[in-house]
């Protein structure tokens, strides 16, 4: 979540609005981060390793965020319309996935 929030803030260097929403839906925790920045370029591969739109970016943040979410049995998605901001949605199971239930925390 820190990476998503940081990206949203950095997408609006002149200032803007970042919205964070959370809730439960069908046994999953949802977290949504929306910004009012320029949006993602069409055909953007946001989660691909070493792909970035930032002049000083490494292209690691979203890829690592995706890996962490997947390792927890969740999903992460990006939606954007150029010029109208970006929305990142994280969905995580409220209960542990069946294959991780027997493992120690």
Query: Which descriptor suits the 3D outline?
Result: globular
- Assembly type of the chains comes to single chain
Described by strand count, sense and barrel closure, the largest sheet is: 4 strands, antiparallel
Widest β-sheet, arrangement of strands:
1-2-4-3
Structural class: alpha+beta
Measure the end-to-end span: 21 Å
User: How helical, in percent, are the residues?
Assistant: 10-25%
The proportion of strand residues reads: 25-35%
Low-confidence stretches: none
Radius of gyration: 15 Å
Could you tell me the mean pLDDT? 85
The arrangement of helices and strands along the chain is HEEHEE
Total helix count?
Answer: 2
How do you describe this structure in short?
By secondary structure, this protein is α+β, with helices and mostly antiparallel strands.
How would you describe what is shown here?
By secondary structure, this protein is an alpha+beta fold. The chain is 19% helix and 29% strand. It has helices at 2-10, 61-71; strands at residues 18-25, 28-35, 75-80, 86-93. The longest helix is centred in the middle third of the chain and has 11 residues, at 61-71. The two termini are 21 Å apart. The mean pLDDT is 85.
List the helices and strands and how they pair.
Blueprint lengths: L1 H9 L7 E8 L2 E8 L25 H11 L3 E6 L5 E8 L12
Label this structure with key terms:
2 helices; single chain; alpha+beta; 105 residues; 4 strands; four-stranded antiparallel β-sheet
């Amino acid at each position: 979540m820190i990476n998503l929030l940081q990206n949203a803030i950095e997408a609006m260097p002149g200032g803007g609005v970042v919205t964070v929403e959370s809730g439960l839906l069908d046994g999953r925790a949802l977290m949504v981060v929306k910004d009012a920045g320029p949006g993602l370029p069409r055909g953007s591969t946001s989660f691909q390793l070493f792909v970035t739109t930032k002049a000083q970016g490494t292209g690691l943040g979203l890829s690592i965020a995706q890996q962490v979410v997947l390792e927890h049995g969740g999903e992460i998605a990006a939606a954007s319309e150029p010029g109208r901001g970006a929305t990142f949605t994280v969905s995580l199971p409220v209960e542990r996935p069946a294959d991780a239930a027997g493992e120690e925390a």
